[in-house]
Amino acid sequence: MASQQLHETLTPHSALRTAVRLAVHLMPGAEHAGISVIERGNKLRALAWTDEVVRSAESRYTGREQHGLWDQLWNSPVAQITDSEADDGWDVLAALGLRSALSLRLRADRRRLTVLTAYARKPGAFDEEATRVGRLFSAHVSIALDSATVREQLTEAMHTRDLIGQATGILMERQGIDASAAFESLVRASQRENVKLRDLARRIVGAHNTP
Questions:
Q1: 143: buried, middle or exposed (CB in 10 Å: 19+, 13-18, 0-12)?
Q2: Domain named ANTAR: which ranges (predicted)?
Q3: What sign results for the dihedral spanned by CA atoms 88, 91, 95, 101?
């Protein structure tokens, strides 16, 4: 059921929102969850969260902590905080009442990581079973996210094709030329104005449809 909910999402954003909600229900010990992107240089950007506690925790991360939880994920698929009150550098989490954290890599390349982090209010909340379930769940999230990204790109490509087709038709009517000449005119204008073809097409269609 959880896998089906993930794979039925239509956009990356909806996949992320569904993933953090399911993480709390599926991962043993999890009370809150968030998904963030971490870039080289320790810049972190929150993408989805179950509540404002998580959003606040991740937005306050500066990358200067002595034992950055997310820093470990450049070299390992899993990283964990057992007790934020005992571990140096995690005063932000402790202040928010988040004692435990379990982070799992979803995507990784040389420049950025996409990370799912589950949080709990008691120390030592995540055991081996939680890690096992978390890794299995994160694999499903990764697949669902990739699928949603491909669907979004295909939808955008189809929309772009339709826009260019409409703009070409408008130029054919205005200038009394065939489709090939109209498309070439569109391409030349795009290059001349240094504007993406789809943006120029959108502008032409918008102007044509405006009374």
A1: middle
A2: 144-205
A3: negative
